[in-house]
UniProtKB/TrEMBL annotation:
Isomerase listed as a keyword: yes
Sequence ranges assigned to domain MDMPI C-terminal in this UniProt record: 143-233
InterPro entries in the cross-refs: DinB/YfiT-like, Maleyloyr_isom, MDMPI_C-term_domain, MDMPI_metal-binding
Statement: the UniProt record of this protein carries the keyword Isomerase: yes
Entry protein name: Maleylpyruvate isomerase family mycothiol-dependent enzyme
GO terms for cellular component: plasma membrane
Domain Mycothiol-dependent maleylpyruvate isomerase metal-binding: start-end pairs: 7-123
Superkingdom to which the source organism belongs: Bacteria
Length: 247
């Protein structure tokens, strides 16, 4: 939960510096108000799942955000409630999870909201900076960034929503130059699989490399520092096709 609390604080600080009406370069459809509202809503939605509240309606949170006299204070309240809920949830609690090969609910939601908040803190930083952040702008430990890459590659894009599409199968190697973590993606017309570790034998058709933080931002389409080699269309397709959406 250290990453969740830290990233929430970064998001709040950058949002205050940027102002609620500032555009978010990494999410062109949003201003800071929309960003803060979205993340605060997601925090409340996640906490409700852990508490077993099956009748929770995210629209209620959005309405509360719109009515709040201090949106940033409303966000901070939701963040603290989520952290408290995670801390109070037993390790064997039952709750909904939605990623492939997800860990048990308490661990799942702690991890998911830590990375959700970290990526959106990068969006908030982008609003304050007026540009996409670099890896040096964010403060995330390499091993935590690598875990976020793993969640994206193994949990999200293999679900079937927003996955890469291709007529000609290809393989992509992803390599973190600082932590030594590696992943291999096999992209086919009707399937996408990710294997942790480098693939032995044949050379991949493309490779994405960089520090764990550069990969974290780059693969979430929040940064442009990763190095892509091999087929030039692979990174282009990633940028245009890989999208993680609320609905």
């Amino acid at each position: 939960m250290t990453l969740l609390r830290h990233s929430g604080a970064v998001l709040l600080d950058a949002a205050a510096r940027a102002g609620l009406g500032a555009p978010v370069p990494t999410c062109p459809a949003w201003d800071v108000r929309a960003l803060v509202t979205h993340q605060g809503m997601v925090h409340r939605w996640a906490a409700a799942h852990l508490r077993g509240e099956k009748d929770h309606d995210p629209k209620t949170s959005v309405a509360a955000a719109q009515a709040a006299p201090d949106l940033l204070a409303w966000f901070a309240d939701g963040l603290e409630s989520l952290i408290g809920t995670i801390a109070a949830t037993p390790d064997d609690a039952e709750a909904m999870v939605f990623l492939k090969d997800a860990p048990p609910p308490r661990r799942f939601w702690a991890r998911r909201q830590a990375h959700e908040t970290t990526i959106h803190s990068a969006d908030s930083l982008a609003a304050a900076l007026g540009r996409a952040p670099t890896a040096s702008d964010v403060t995330i430990a390499p091993e935590l960034a690598a875990d976020g890459v793993d969640e994206l590659l193994c949990g999200f894009i293999t679900r079937g929503r927003g996955k890469l599409r291709t007529d000609e199968p290809y393989t992509v190697a992803v390599r973190a130059t600082d932590t030594g973590d590696a992943w291999t993606l096999r992209v086919e017309p009707d399937a996408l699989t990710t294997t942790a570790g480098a693939r032995a034998g044949a050379q991949p058709d493309a490779e994405f490399a960089g520090t764990a933080a550069q990969l974290y931002l780059g693969l979430w389409n929040r940064g442009a520092e990763l190095t892509a080699t091999g087929r030039p269309d692979v990174l282009r397709d990633w940028r245009s096709q890989v999208r993680v959406r609320w609905s």
